Structures are given as C-alpha cells and as structure tokens.
Amino acid sequence: LLTSQAQIYLADCSVVVECPGSRVSLVSLSREVAPLTLKGFEYSLEKARLKRTQTLGLANRAVAARAYAEFDRGELLVTVQRGSE
Question: What is the reported pTM?
Fold first, then answer.
C-alpha cells in the first residue's frame, strides 16, 4: 500500500529504508521474526527475536541514509511514514 505519506508492505527477507527521518514500524506477522538486526535506526538491535505480541519494533526512526532490517525467519509488516519529524 502506498500513499503520499506512507508505505506499508509485507517483508519475508531483509528490508532497506532509504528515507532518513522517516518513522518505521516493524510488526511480526508470524510467531517470531529472527534473528532480527536493525542498523541505521535510532534504536538498533542485534540478532533479536521479535514475537507477534511484542511492541519492540514500533515507532523507530531511520537516522542513516540507508537503514537495514535483516532477518532470516518470519514475516514483517513494515510501515514507513515519511516526513514525521
């Protein structure tokens, strides 16, 4: 789904966000997304497990020109909201 202010999509592998300053939310649609590593975000993670019921992936912010969410297992619902200072 694409609007003038946001992108919403399903990811079953690594994600790259090329929109510094955008607010990014990652929601697990599977039982678990793992090992999840976030780089280039305000809040980074290293080989974490994101479970369906956790809010750990909500309302992060891309701070680098290219922010990465890397994982091997699971599915993420990704929301990128542009211009959300």
Answer: 0.90
